[in-house]
Amino acid sequence: MSVTSAARAGKRGAEKGIELSDRYEVYPDQPLPFLNSPGCDAVAALDKRNPSLALFALICSRELAPRVDAVRSLSHVESSAFLTPRASGIVTQANDQKRKFVIIFEQPRGERVQSEPDASFQPLSEDDLIRGVITPMVTNLRELGGRIMAHRAIRADNIFTSGGSNQEIILGECVSSPAGYFQPVIYEPIDAGMSTPSGRGPGYISDDFYALGVLIAVLSHGGNPVSHLSDQEVVASKIALGSYATLVGQARVSLKLMEALRGLLCDDPAERWNIMDLDLWANGRHLSPKQATLSAKAARAFEFDGEEYNTARGLSFAMGHNWSLAQEALRDDALEGWVRRSLSDEKCASAILKASRMSRMGGEGGGGQDKAVAGVLTALDHLAPIRYKSISARLDGLAQALAIDFDKDHVPQMISEVVRSKLHKSWIEGQPSMKPEFVPWIRQADIIESFVNRSRIGFGPERALYECNSSWPCLSSLLKNDFVNEGSDLLPALERLAQDGIPDYVPMDRHIAAFSATRVKNLSERLFIQLAEPADKLQYNVSVLRLFSEIQRSTGPESLPNMARWFAKLLGPITETYHFRSFRQQLSKGIEGATHSGDLAELLWLVDNENLRLQDEVGFAQAQNEFASIAGQITWHEDGALTSDAHVATISQRASAVVSAVLASVSIAVMSFIYVT
Amino acid sequence: MATETEKSNKMTWILLAIPVSAVLMPTCLLLLVLMLPTMVAFIVDGTPGRKFVITVGMMNLAGTVPAVVDLWDHGQTFQASFEGMSNVFAWAGALMASGVGWLIYWVMPPIVANYQGIASRAQVLSLRAKQKKLIAAWGDEVAAVIAEPYRQGEESAEEAAEPEAER
Fold first, then answer.
1. Is the Cβ of B156 closer than 8 Å to some Cβ of chain A?
2. A442 and A497 inside one domain
3. Helix (H, G, I), strand (E, B), or coil: what is residue A229?
4. Are A277 and A306 in a shared domain?
5. CB pair distance less than 8 Å for B128 and A642
6. How many domains does chain A have?
7. Predicted local distance difference test score (pLDDT) of residue A8
8. Is residue A618 part of a domain?
């Protein structure tokens, strides 16, 4: 038994794993490093219904979130050449109590074709490539095409040998991290290679065909054919020479394979081979090899940053990497003159002239300069991604870049500036034709724009993040040890946060507000307006409670005793705002009761009871009036109003008359009685 | 109108008094003489409502009852009336009774002053107790409307005036 197989056997069953979906067990203390994916550790897993099956689980991170939607979609793929997710869910690690999203796969029987991204290996023959790699990959790409999703992780270190006599490869997983994020630059088309990893976006199926072409080149070469080049040099070479020339070059390739390589490595996505072309080729029909369409070369070179550039695309790529020098290049008309005279591109020259003038009018350090540079870069290379300062993202990658780099300095701000400056629209206008696949991404950019323009809590870039990345987990620092990507998971996560002791802070921040606004259905916007405009701290806490009580009503669970205790602690001082002591006692008892039941709505009713508040205020005003009235009476008495000479005289005169009348009446009656008898 | 009504009432009484005094002339003459202290009081009384006249007059009237009864015993003649006027005991009775009226009017002010002083102090204590109950029920802030500082008393809040709680 090899080391790998020994490791695969593991010691499952010796100790209890963490249960997942009542069927699987995950063993975080039994790592399987040879199955690690970039950014994710692999550990042993067990199917309790079929314990003999070798499984592994990938433990995903919150910051580079897994493609949860893709997990659901791909779990139904029936292909022996594809690592299908069998199950997924959230488990709590025993050692640090962190909750992680895990995805369970069946372990491939064979090894990785390329053990490390830079490792060399025995080159595959043409027959092995066609039968063992391309044929199963066609099946896989057809499956993916049927689901209208791109794999974005087709590379030599993510395919496995089947392990038996069958020489077909198995394509590794693509769901444990954002699409294309860990893909080496050589596997990415030029525009995606120019993007930052976070800005590559979910991509298109044509990206997978390009990656397949690179994979064939790598496998036939026995490793990375351009390992001597840096990422930037690879892209620059692809721009200058074309992808085929860069990756295959002068290597000896059969005509049949060259045909496929030229088709798959075509730099124009519209001309690149698709599944039909590949099917035809696999069935023996010969197609004419695609020829690389390179950028027009200038009659004389343009010098930028000490280098000379002959093509607009090459210059655009270089300028995008040196933003401050690019700004300087717009201060005179040299660039515009070069494009007009040496490239004879009047349209591009006019765009540059317009941008240069705008830049000069904007003055030093103005936002107009950055916008002008972005416009010039797009004019020079309309196929390149949207570039703005340190942002470089494809149209479909803006939202993903916002999510992945949200905590990086100024990235949300820069993406906000991109959409506010309508750079995405300028980019679309710069394209030779409007493509249908742009439509959802234009809509997504519009959503980003609509939310970043509203800065209050519940909106802003955070809201844009969750609106445009439907399965991205909540990035709140309060939930850093949890994985919350469903609205219904939010309150249970906060409930767990409070189970070991009630924190002093309010369980609310901009991420939680934006997340709940997006993922919990039918929440009124009024809740967030109240959150943004609190009269005081207590009122803010009441607004937070109101939001959470609505979430509890909408998603459950019915009882949240820890959260109720949390809010009871935060809102305890609210009882002191009532004047009437009896109300205070009544409230305290009510809050205690609501805490036990864990009903946030009941707690809210108590602390936000307008009728009770009104009664208290009216009663207090009456009590104040009564108190003042009594004080007046006391003063009247103490000033001797009753004992004054005048008052005494008046009273005593009346009393004298009364006493005299009574006495006289009695006397007359007695005398009358005596005389009569 | 009120003045005319009063005048009308007075006239009614005078019209009624004329036949009565005509019938009871001896009695009226005797009373007129024996009620002399009351007339003096009427002259000296300057109080509103003439409470002094009432006080002395009531007792004076009671003091004339034996003389009037004696007159009626003798057939209510002018002779008996004049005898009554010259009777020492009749005068003594009328004057002593008037003196008691004077005495009542003289001793009443200190008695009333003492009573009012005691009643006033009791009232202040009662009012202060009410204030303490209000403070117990509503807190010190209820006294904020006046300058004088109040401290919460020992009375329970339940004893104070309470608005009806919602639940």
1. no
2. no
3. coil
4. no
5. no
6. 5
7. 52
8. no
Q: Which of B58, B104, B138 is closest, CB to CB, to A623?
A: B138
Claim to verify: residue A278 and residue A162 sit in the same structural domain: yes
* B48 CA: distance to closest CA in chain A (Å): 9
Contacts B49 to A, Cβ<8 Å:
653
A341-345 mean pLDDT: 89
Is residue A466 one of the residues assigned to a domain? no
CA–CA separation, A251 and B88 (whole Å): 166
Q: b/e per residue, B39-75, with b = 16+ CB within 10 A?
A: eebeeebebeebbbbbbbbbbbbbbbbbbbebbeeee
pLDDT at residue A114 in the model: 93
Q: Is the pLDDT of residue A603 over 80?
A: yes
The structural domains of chain B, with segments of one domain joined by +, span 2-159
The whole-angstrom distance between A523's CA and the closest CA on chain B is 29
ipTM value greater than 0.85: no
Best residue of A652, A671, A673 to probe chain B, by most B CBs closer than 10 Å: A652
Instruction: Write the CA distances from A391 to A374, A386, A466, A559, integer angstroms.
Output: 10, 8, 20, 45
Q: Smallest Cα–Cα separation from A458: which of A552, A553, A532, A543?
A: A532
- A99 DSSP β-pair partners: A92
Q: Which of A78-87, A176-185, A262-271, B6-15 has the lowest mean pLDDT?
A: B6-15
- Whether residues A193 and A80 fall in one domain: no
**Average pLDDT in the A468-487 region?**
94
pLDDT at position B154, please?
A: 39
Q: Which of B54, B125, B148 to mutate to test the interface with A (most CBs of A within 10 A)?
A: B54
Lowest mean pLDDT among A4-18, A58-72, B148-162: B148-162
Contact across the interface for A661 and B58, Cβ inside 8 Å = yes
User: How close does chain B come to A612, measured CA to CA in Å?
Assistant: 6
**Which residue range is the domain that position A83 belongs to?**
3-106
10 Å Cβ neighbour count for A93? Answer: 17
Facing B145 at nearest CB: one of A627, A656, A665: A627
Residues A648, B109: C-beta atoms closer than 8 Å: yes
The residue from A434, A461, A488 where one domain ends is: A461
User: Is-contact A379 A350, C-beta < 8 A?
Assistant: no
**CB of A663 less than 8 A from some CB of B:** yes
Q: Closest Cα of chain A to B89: distance in Å?
A: 15
CB contact under 8 A, B52 and A612: no
Q: What's the gap in Å between the CA of B12 and the closest CA on chain A?
A: 25
**More confident: B133 or B159:** B133
- Give percent of chain A above pLDDT 90: 64
Average pLDDT, chain B: 84
Section A382-405 average pLDDT: 94
Q: Look at the alpha carbons of B20, B25, B28, B32 in this order and tell me if their dihedral is positive or negative.
A: positive
Question: From B120, which residue of chain A is nearest by alpha-carbon distance?
Answer: A637
Contact present, A298 and A311 (Cβ < 8 Å): yes
Q: Residue A507 contacts by C-beta under 8 Å, 6 or more apart in sequence?
A: A478, A494, A497, A498, A544, A548, A563, A566
Whether B62 contacts A668, CB under 8 Å? yes
Task: Verify that A482 and A518 share a domain, yes or no.
Answer: yes
- pLDDT category, A1, cuts 50, 70, 90? very low
Task: Write down the pTM of the prediction.
Answer: 0.79
Say if the Cβ atoms of A663 and B62 lie within 8 Å. yes
- B112 touches A: beta carbon within 8 Å: yes
A308 interfaces chain B, CB cutoff of 8 Å: no
pLDDT in tens, A566-591: 999 999 888 988 999 999 999 999 99
When pLDDT is averaged across residues A432-442 and rounded to a whole number, the result is 87
